[in-house]
Design goal:
The chain is built from eight helices and five strands; from the N terminus they run H-E-H-H-H-E-H-E-H-E-H-E-H. It is α/β, with parallel strands linked by helices. It has a single domain, classed as Rossmann fold (3-Layer(aba) Sandwich), CATH 3.40.50. It has a five-stranded parallel sheet, with helices on both faces. Helix 5 links the parallel strand 2 and strand 3. The longest helix is centred in the C-terminal third of the chain and has 15 residues. It starts with a helix and ends in a 5-residue tail after the last helix. It binds magnesium ion. The site of magnesium ion has 7 residues, from helix 2.
Length: 178
């Protein structure tokens, strides 16, 4: 996993944006999970935990991690991340449809573009960093979200299945030319 993050850093990725439902976790909550965060934590994919930890460990290299989701249950997602990655979870920016941030004019409303832009603005405010679209990689099980990200010069990976995380290295290498 560290090798994978090395690769991301080497191709200039500075923001790893992860979808939550059916990507970080192995089911879709529909944004309406009624059970505990502890129960939902059991559905977190271990490979994604490894990936998140590996990215967080590279903070000094200027690579950031965020969760972009249409779920309004961002407090629940925070608890799940706290359970699974513990140290460093506060460094993960979470943007969901929780009405805590306003729609950003001039940014497409499709896919996760609004969420990603909101994260980029947060990071600029907090760390003074400017992250360009080509420095963002979106990892999402929804090919439409990924396609939209690609059309706005971001990198994207369709997360289709558990083992695909091992294939990401090759998939991402395919975007080098962009
Ligand atoms: Mg999803």
């Amino acid at each position: 996993m560290a090798r994978y993050v090395d690769h991301l850093v080497s191709i200039g990725v500075r923001l790893v944006a992860l979808d939550f439902d059916a990507t970080i976790i192995d089911l879709h909550t529909g944004g309406a999970w009624m059970e505990s965060a502890k129960d939902l934590s059991k559905h977190v994919r271990s490979s994604l935990v490894e990936l998140m930890k590996a990215v967080l460990e590279r903070k000094a290299d200027g690579i950031y991690l965020c969760v972009v989701t249409h779920s309004p249950q961002t407090d629940l997602i925070r608890q799940v991340l706290r359970n699974k990655i513990a140290r460093g979870h506060n460094d993960v920016v979470i943007k969901g449809d929780d009405k805590t941030w306003d729609r950003i004019s001039g940014i497409p409303t499709g896919g996760k573009q609004q969420h990603i832009e909101a994260v980029v603005r947060d990071l600029k405010k907090k760390y003074g960093v400017s992250i360009a679209p080509y420095e963002v990689v979106l990892i999402d099980d929804d090919y439409i979200n990924v396609t939209i990200a690609l059309s706005y010069d971001m990198k994207g990976i369709i997360y289709e299945k558990e083992e695909s995380i091992e294939e990401i290295f090759n998939l991402t290498r395919g975007t080098d030319a962009t």
